[in-house]
Amino acid sequence: MSDDAVKQAQEAAAAAAAAAEALQRQAQEAIRKAEEAAALAKAAADAQQAAARSAPDAASAPPADAPPDAPDAGPLGADGVEAIRSGYAFEGAALEMGALVNGEAMPDVPVRIPLAMTNRHGLVAGATGTGKTRTLQVLAEQLAANGVAVFAADIKGDLSGVATPGEGNEKLLKRTAGIGQDWTPASFPTEFYSLGGVGRGVPIRATISGFGPLLLSKVLGLNETQESSLGLVFHYANKNSLALLDLDDLRAVLAYLVSDEGKDELEGLGGLSKATVGVILRELIAFADQGADVFFGEPEIDTAEFLRSASDGRGVISLLEVPGVADKPALYSTFLMWLLADLYGGLPEVGDLDKPKLVFFFDEAHLLFRDASKEFLAQVVQTVRLIRSKGIGVFFVTQTPKDVPGDVLAQLGSRVQHQLRAFTPDDAKALRATVSTYPNSGYDLEETLTVLGTGEAIVTVMNEKGAPSPVAWTRLRAPQASMSPSPDAVIDAAVAASPLLAKYGTAIDRESAHELLTKKMADAAAAADAAEAARAKAEADAGYEKMQAKIRADQEKAEKKAQAEYDRMMKRTSGTSRSRSRTPERSALEQVLGSKQTQKIIGQVLTGLFGMAKRR
Question: Could you give the 3-state DSSP secondary structure of residue 411?
Answer without folding.
Answer: coil
